[in-house]
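User: I'm putting together notes for a lab meeting next week and I want to include a structural view of one of the chains we've been expressing. I don't have a solved structure, so I'd like a prediction I can at least talk through. The sequence is below, exactly as it appears in our construct file.
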Amino acid sequence: MINILIVEEPIVTAVSWWRLFRPIAEMQRQFPGKFNVKMVRNKSINADDLFYTDIFILCRPKDEETLSLARRIKALGRSKIILDIDDAITNLPINHFQFAHHHARVSIVRDIFTLVDYFWCSTEQLLYECDCLGRGEVVPNAIYPWDLPNEPAPDRGLWMWRGGGLQILDVLLAGAEKYEEIKALPKQWIFWGVLPPLAHGENVGLPLEYESDVQSYFEKLKNAKFNGVWKPLAEHQFNDAKSNIAWIEATMSGGVCLTNYAGKTAWENAVSEFPTYDEACEIWAKSKERIIQDFNLEITARQRAESIDRLMNGTILA
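Assistant: Thanks for the context. Below is the predicted structure for the 318-residue chain, given as structure tokens.
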């Protein structure tokens, strides 16, 4: 039995849905009795947690409290630390809404990086951002094959963009010109979260409320059957390290992902131009096949389990 303590608020958020609850639960399902998993907030960690835990999993390496915990773990010399990371928080562009917050804590994050035994990075670029080649691997965001529909969405001309204040900058910097080009092509645009400050047409209604219930959001996403998801991304290193969740979501809904990042690593099955319905169906089928092959939760859960085994046996340590 390997005792694992995930240092994170034990609530379902978008991050914990993708990176913690679903993959770790699948890991336990595949290897019953092998992993004893507990999830607690940093401030709730007790002495017995420190002495009886084999693997600590950290997710948000940005504060003194996390750094202090990592130092205590390493000082005891008993446990290993895995950092699961999904964003290049040490390399935000200066005009990013959260730049000031994260930039003030870069030295803390880098100190935490030095104490981590192994990294689970959602993208290849993050391996370089974390300087963890040789002590990390890419574990992409993934879903089950049965999360995908059996056929593409019907031809209703329904397109979607989803985001909040943090994503508006991407729309303005990378999407304003494209939106002017394509805005009249869908029969209906759904803006999920906020309505970006663009010149909209009559095919745009009131924005949908941003989902706080992640489980409910994904059910609505699958039932909505969008023909496409638009995902403009400003071109910089932070977005280069970003995972392709928008493309996965589009495929889950039966549609395609339209983005200026089409063709880049992990975005190979997205499109850069607005497709016809027949083209979209063909692209969706290829996307579904790609997800089952490369972004399959059953496979990535086993990948996590195998890396923990190697870490416990010491075979990957310098």
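A couple of points you could mention at the meeting. Residues 256 and 280 are 6 Å apart (CA to CA). The radius of gyration is 20 Å.

User: Perfect, that's what I needed.
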